[in-house]
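cron nightly-structures :: item 1 of 1
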Amino acid sequence: MLTGLAGVALVCAGIGVPTAEAADISAGSSKYGKGWKRCTPKLNGVRTTVGAKQRTVIVVNQKSKTYANTGFYVRINGKKCSFQRMFLATKSRVGYGGTVAGTQRKQGTGTTPRGTYTITTAFGLKADPGSWVSYHRVKSGDYWVEDNQSSHYNTLRNKKSGGFRYWLPASNKNSSERLTDYPGQYDFAMVINYNRPPHAVRYRGAGIFLHVKGKGATAGCVAVSRKNMRIALAYLRSGDKIVITS
């Protein structure tokens, strides 16, 4: 066991990972990518493919309708297929509608899309804690566009920029999400690239994130603790993947 981010204990995924090797997974490691190969490890009970340039992987394994085990793993440099488990959240939350195959999802059903997706951006009501992906600090007027008639569907946009009907009430199927309405949950969030432009399918759903856990199930996102969100932001590189399965 070694101590990492802000004194958080980091648990090895596997047996007997030497401290010298584990040190090579530091958030700012200059040895990023050394010795890696494309491989198919079993992580969090799920066999998954990890690309040669992929630094981290998040595996969300649904255990009941709205709960999942969510594991976050970082590759060890100098090893072609060795990973350090940074956290295993055994009570992470998914959508109130459970999970569904991503290609079958419908907007407004509260389901989390199963599949494998990249993560390339993050946002939050709080300042960037030191992430490696592009991070947007949320400001007044920021929305996640869920207006199916908008060319900006499934993107972050400020109402001052126009192009979507931000004034529609939440009861309307084309209403968008005002990000400042969710303090706590959206203090830190990563965008899961599900149904994103330029190939977004209208009415399939928008605004699927990995974010801070609230009091209940989500509307389709994956939610973990604030501490775990900060750990993920400290290590995940743009293009790394999240696997959602059941």
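cron nightly-structures :: done
Confidence is low (pLDDT under 50) at residues 1-23.
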